[in-house]
């Protein structure tokens, strides 16, 4: 399974600047346990983040953890998040942790102990910056929209001044990030290989169905190419 | 999108006991914003948790949030988590937050602002209890295994004493939990309905592929029924 045994545990020093730096520059993004493979290639981080549809954002509110599923978008080495200006969860001013997890398969071993999940997981730590510059705010919201459906931003009505004023845009550097990947068959104990138990992997994937038009859609508007060709199985 | 604008923000009082209590007993599990529907039915919480494959666990380590994808299992009103006895992340002794999120569709509106994601999301808050009783520890690990593949526990080698000793099992009450659901077409502004923009929902679902036998699988062991019939598309 996605076991907590396979996760970095130590708190590290401050992260260096992002840019072309390799991943895992701090102690807490370095894996301590487990057989899962840690990737050190920034391109793998980008690919994973670009494939994900949403993230889980961790914040601390009044000393307790809070985890929110939320949208994100990436521009270079920056992750953009957004929320209402009235939402307190994004108003903590403190550090956040963003996790994007893609599941690829159920790993069914001969022993309960060695069950696992094939997955790709990115975790980003940092203190987000509130974006004030209007151009960057627009670029961030564009990235958030494009994350859900590439090509969408140019096809829709862009935000009004009022909508922009109601939206907080946050920028999180990808400087301190880790990527963890588990692939392949189960890893059973040698002595269990003789057991009369089926073992293997059941692939899991996310697929997109036929687009369902809004009941209020005006007649004569067909499914645009950026949707029809998007994320097809 | 899964906007942070749609999430409860206030910290609440202590939660009452779980059992047959309705959901949302505290301020922080009560939704403050957005059009998404909050569910108050405990059966919906169970159904969502039973459908999920893994959760995102939020903890606070040295004052900073940490989010880990990890396995879970449910028995009644208790969620079980596990990890290595050496993993520091589960050793905080403090509160945790567990989120299980299922994505059902991309909500493509006529305006960028009203884009969203149809989803079902459960969030559980609490202070997990380290399980000492061996029977409950076994029941918890059984639930964790069955979550990934129902029927699996009875088909595999159960944990040895040594494996049990290396595993920490935690129990988290479902007393303080919320369920949030967004369904249906986009909700555009009235004046945008006339725009020449396609709007609607692209369904998203998780599907399971053909089981891939472990290369080390002994000859003559076919895919068992509990796998073949499991989570078929």
List keywords for this structure.
homodimer, 233 residues, alpha+beta, 7-stranded antiparallel beta sheet, 33% strand, globular, Nitroimidazol reductase NimA, pyridoxamine 5'-phosphate oxidase superfamily (chains A, B), Split_barrel_FMN-bd (chains A, B)
Task: Explain what this protein looks like in three dimensions.
Two copies of one chain form a homodimer. Chain A has about 230 residues and is of the alpha+beta class. In chain A, about 15% of the residues lie in helices and about 35% in strands. Chain A contains four helices and twelve strands, in the order βαβββββββααββββα. Chain A is globular. Chains A and B meet through β2, β3, β5, β6 and β7 of A and β2, β3, β5, β6 and β7 of B.
Q: Secondary-structure element order of chain A, as H and E?
A: EHEEEEEEEHHEEEEH
Radius of gyration of chain A: 20 Å
Unreliable residue stretches of chain A: 1-21
The CATH superfamily of chain A is identified as: Electron Transport, Fmn-binding Protein, Chain A
Q: What is the subunit arrangement here?
A: homodimer
What is the distance, rounded to the nearest whole angstrom, between the alpha carbons of the first and last residues of chain A? 26 Å
- Global mean pLDDT of chain A: 85
Q: Mind summarizing the main beta sheet of chain A?
A: 7 strands, antiparallel
What class, by secondary structure content of chain A? alpha+beta
Please give the CATH class of chain A. Answer: Mainly Beta
- Greatest interface by residues involved: A-B, 113 and 113 residues
């Amino acid at each position: 399974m996605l076991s907590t045994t396979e996760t970095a545990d130590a708190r590290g020093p401050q992260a260096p600047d992002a840019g072309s730096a390799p991943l895992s520059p701090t102690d807490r993004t370095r894996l301590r346990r487990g057989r899962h493979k840690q990737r050190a290639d920034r391109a793998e981080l980008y690919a994973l983040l670009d494939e994900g549809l949403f993230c889980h954002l961790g914040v601390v509110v009044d000393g307790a953890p809070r985890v929110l599923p939320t949208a994100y978008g990436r521009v270079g080495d920056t992750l953009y998040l957004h929320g209402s200006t009235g939402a307190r969860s994004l108003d903590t001013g403190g550090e956040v942790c963003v996790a994007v997890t893609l599941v690829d398969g159920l790993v069914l071993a001969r022993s309960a102990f060695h069950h696992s999940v094939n997955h790709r997981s990115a975790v980003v730590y940092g203190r987000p910056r509130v974006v004030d510059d209007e151009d960057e705010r627009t670029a961030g919201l564009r990235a958030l929209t494009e994350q859900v459906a590439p090509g969408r931003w140019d096809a829709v009505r862009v935000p009004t001044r009022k909508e922009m004023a109601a939206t907080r845009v946050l920028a999180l550097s990808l400087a301190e990030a880790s990527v963890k990947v588990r692939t392949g068959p189960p890893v059973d104990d040698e002595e269990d290989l003789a057991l009369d138990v089926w073992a293997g992997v059941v692939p899991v994937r996310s697929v997109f169905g036929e687009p369902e038009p809004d009941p209020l859609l005006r007649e004569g508007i067909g499914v645009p190419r950026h949707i029809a060709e998007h994320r097809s199985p």
